[in-house]
UniProtKB/TrEMBL annotation:
<keyword id="KW-0547">Nucleotide-binding</keyword>
<dbReference type="Pfam" id="PF13671">
    <property type="entry name" value="AAA_33"/>
</dbReference>
<keyword id="KW-0067">ATP-binding</keyword>
<dbReference type="GO" id="GO:0005524">
    <property type="term" value="F:ATP binding"/>
</dbReference>
<dbReference type="InterPro" id="IPR027417">
    <property type="entry name" value="P-loop_NTPase"/>
</dbReference>
<protein>
    <submittedName>
        <fullName>ATP-binding protein</fullName>
    </submittedName>
</protein>
Length: 173
């Protein structure tokens, strides 16, 4: 199965995914961003974009990579990846469903003030204009389609450990 951790930048997906992995036996983290990085390395290059998710090959490559990893390893893949465009999520989830791969879709959520503070205080990436520019599109997705598609885990006043435990308990129930 796949445990997909969605949400905007700064919500805590990466931190939470490692903790979820430690709580779910036979699980491993698959960072779908690596698929985007592979596409970015193609030269002379793909069409100019501000986000590799806009390249049509990214979505089916994520599906196929996840499928092949699961076929090889079994168990559970924990995928921390922001997907804020509903059509992109539908394409990915339909592709996984086509291969009969069950998906638990969690949205790691925090209020806008908390997200800004986390992004500004990030010790690894530092304040990031790229990450900040997605706050509004996240807010819109969270108000609309994400509410129907994902299980919200509000991390505004919750530690990553508490969020991971809530996700692991939900998956195991």
């Amino acid at each position: 199965m796949i445990v997909w951790l969605n949400g905007t930048h700064g919500a805590g997906k990466t931190t939470t995914s490692a903790l979820v992995q430690s709580l779910l036996p036979h699980s491993r983290v698959f960072d779908a961003e690596k698929v985007g990085e592979t596409l970015m390395d193609i030269t002379p290059g793909l069409p100019e974009t501000d986000n590799f998710q806009h390249w049509p090959p990214w979505r089916p490559l994520v599906v196929e990579t996840a499928r092949h990893i699961l076929d090889y390893t079994g168990g559970t893949l924990v995928i921390p990846m922001t997907v804020l465009i509903e059509d992109y999520w539908r394409e990915i989830s339909a592709g996984l469903a086509h291969h009969a791969i069950p998906v638990r879709h969690f949205v790691i959520h925090a209020d806008q003030e908390t997200l800004r503070a986390r992004i500004d205080a990030d010790a690894v990436l530092g304040p990031s204009p790229f990450r900040l520019k997605y706050l509004e599109s996240y807010a819109e997705a969270a108000r609309t389609w994400l509410r129907e598609e994902g299980e919200f885990i509000d991390t505004t006043h919750r530690t990553p450990e508490q969020a991971a435990r809530q996700i692991a308990d939900a998956v195991n129930s």
